[in-house]
Amino acid sequence: MSMETVQKIPRYRFLPVKRGEISKTVYSAGGPGFTAFPPPGDTSACLMIDALLTNSFVRRTLCRSCATNLAGLFASAARSCMAEMRDCQKRGDSEQLLNMQEQKKNRLCMAEYQGRCDENGTAVGHAPKVLGEYHALIRETFSAEVFAPRCILEAADVQCGCGAKVLPHHIVMKGHPSLFEKIWNKVRMFSNIHSVFRHTGAEKIWFFNTEFYLMLYLALFGNHGKQIFCTMFLDGYHGGFTARIKQRIFERAQKKMRCIIATGPQLQFKNARQLFLPDYAYDEAVYGSYRAARKEEMAVCLGTMGAEKEIEALVECFTRNGYPLHIAGRFYDKERVERLRKAAGKNILIEDVYLSRGEYLTLLGKARYVVLPYRPAQYGTQTSGVLQEAVFLDTIPVSYEKVLSGNGIPGIGFADWEELTAEKLRKRPETAAYAQLREGVYSRQQMKNALEKLFLE
């Protein structure tokens, strides 16, 4: 996969532009230290500076004459493009006009601005997985450019014909980051988001892995004239004063979006159109062999072991009921791992390890159960990749009833960890409903058709 690093834009000198002469007068070498921009006749390159013009900070920073020239350049470029399309209509050149319109519709930017990784630079979380999934679904129909930090691009299975754009910043996940590190991580995300808007030539931007600080950016700076599509794994922020402030910002940001792609069937949004679409698609070629594995009498807990997971309650519960449990995933807090190992019974194995894709699917496929120790207040409607892939492999999910019902997936639910006894785990619920979900909601072709319809509108 070819990668292009997003760099600072070099200095340019823009000349005043007269109406109808965009292809003749808008570029200039400008003397030593300056670069010709755009090349003669390249009106599409002119349109790419719109993100700069719509940012108030940039407008305040630019000198008056430079800002005037930029505005004139952009306006003339837009007029030239419209004039070219009108000329096509007058000439009856329907084929050329159709090609121009199709090229515009079929350009799509996919953006992952977080770049979460461990201290070794290995990507963590589900960003590489969903990038590969989504890109595979749309690459036959759309000319997609991908913006992401290098760790995400290297971990994702993406073939980008146009080349991938490497965003400059990533976030190193730690157990106890300092206040400065927390603030600096937010600044990095803002910088990456701005780089996407600044460098993409597409009118449609799909942020497929989102969190609150994208919402804050959109609320503060708007969409820069782009059509914004956001994949959301939760429907808002609920709780105290801070959560209410976040929710107000989130609702304001929704007004800047063309559509929200909701990954859960229960997610609801106040100020934006929405489309339900799971973040994972079922592929028999990928999951079939792992699903065929013989089930072992054990439960697994897999993935990143962050603070949002009730690992302590999980260990206490399985120590009490004696059912075999294998916890395998990356712990950012190393002291937490040691505390858990000391508290765990002999029936529990705890590994602080980064699982490869094959290792993860092998464990999930052979386990009778997968335990999802998510807090119901947060994951009552929020979706989980592990939960969806459990359906793909006929592995029965075990979690709070609110988590299972909120995701529309049957399994073994409980209201309190004390209800999860060994007897309850040995009842072995039926998995026939999972086959129906694989053929319906998680159908690869159904998801592909839904995305094509959405982005071609």
What features would you describe in this structure?
The chain is α/β, with parallel strands linked by helices. The chain folds into three domains: 91 residues, no CATH class; 187 residues, 3-Layer(aba) Sandwich (Rossmann fold), CATH 3.40.50; 156 residues, Rossmann fold (3-Layer(aba) Sandwich). 45% of the residues lie in helices and 15% in strands. It contains 21 helices and 16 strands. The strands form three sheets. The protein has an eight-stranded parallel β-sheet with strand order 1-5-4-2-7-8-9-10, sandwiched between helices. It has a six-stranded parallel β-sheet with strand order 13-12-11-14-15-16, with helices on both faces. Strand 15, helix 18 and strand 16 form a beta-alpha-beta unit. Helix 5 crosses helix 6 and helix 10 crosses helix 11. The two termini are 29 Å apart. About 12% of the residues have low confidence.
Give the tally of β-strands. 16
Q: What share of residues are in beta strands? A: 15-25%
**Quaternary form:** single chain
* Low-confidence spans: 8-62
What does the radius of gyration come to? 25 Å
Question: Kindly, what is the distance between the CA atoms of the first and last residues, rounded to a whole number of angstroms?
Answer: 29 Å
- Strand arrangement in the largest pleated sheet: 1-5-4-2-7-8-9-10
CATH class of the largest domain: Alpha Beta
Q: What's the average pLDDT?
A: 81
Biggest sheet descriptor: 8 strands, parallel
Structural category: alpha/beta
Helix content: 40-55%
Taken from the alpha-carbon principal axes, the silhouette is globular
Number of domains: 3
CATH topology of the largest domain: Rossmann fold
